[in-house]
Protein: ABC transporter permease
Amino acid sequence: MLVYLRLFKESFSFAINALRNNKLRTFLSLLGVTVGIFSIIAVLAAVDSLDRNIKDSLSGLDKNTIYLTKFSFGPTQVPRWKRDRYPQVDYDDFEFVRRNVNGIEASAYVIFGGSETIRYQAETLTNINVTPISNGIYVIDDLKMGQGRFYSELESETGAPVIVLGYELATNLFKDANPLGKQIRVFGRKLTVIGVLEKYGAALGDSPDTKAFVPANFVRRFRNGGSDGLPGAVVIKPKADIDIGAFESQLKQKFRRYRGLKADEEDDFFVNKLAGLVSFVDGIISVMNGIGWLISGFSLLVGGFGIANIMFVSVKERTNLIGIQKSLGAKNRFILFQFLFEAVILAVVGGLVGLGLVYILTLIASSFSGDFEFVLSPGNMFLGFSLSTLIGLISGVLPAIRASRLDPVEAIRTGM
Structure:
């Protein structure tokens, strides 16, 4: 054990001397490993951070939540022209589902619209996501109120002119003033603010902080939400103790019968689950990771060749020293491990520099990205260290074998 510790110490000294005596050559060789480790770990850190923020955004939602609509939330084999002919899901569809499908804990009807302008006195906010939706969304999305309340079922069904604002939206409109009871103009009409959501932070898509909710029936008075109008969807949260597969089958069967579809006719709607959306996101994340590995792998390959090159040069420069060591009794494995350790140390130095650059980059990116947090996980740090060690081993094994097999007499003669 002491022999190998001494071997490690001597190899480390040789590596440091190589860094000192051949600064430019060593720098160029290590640059490949540094760039390769930086590229891979930076990509993995960015993708992991994106994945973590998306999962955090969806963590408060029931993954079994279903969106019944004419659109598919993921890839589908139904051609575009056929999907375009599907009828919109309207409020009558919502009423049918709510009253005839068993096992529903909460349901809501949502109208997908564009961005709106909100005005209060001299303040004007543009491109705001104002979602027309019935009050069931309060239970489905598990919304938390910071001030006031969400609109009631009665207000939802009668289309009362009320609105619930996200935290950031309310702050931008009213500053330090109490927003409850204030009247603002949306859709060119006056609505009364009855509630403000608590602060949520960053989320997938639009954060609740920047959204507003109004009763869907209020918007249906002046905007067509029927089969030829604005697209809509029925949002369903099944009860926790039911078989979700059986629930989907029941929903499809009853809705097909409601729409008069025959047994040989295809569905003219989609049943989308948030769990499917999560799986779709996971697939995208996997593809991004694969692309990152493919691109960064070329940098690592170049770095490996750089380490191998400097080790072959090092063997040639120290041929005479190797001959003297072997003539004094040094075994082949001693010479082998000496150069292997040196290659690994050089690669690890490059890898640690790359990890340090990624860490600095995540700190800078997090400071400029607001609520989006970039994270360099311990797993990625360990992966970077392991990869750099592996590159050192692979790059140094051939030069080390060549050095260990040198004939001591020929090595001394060549060195002279």
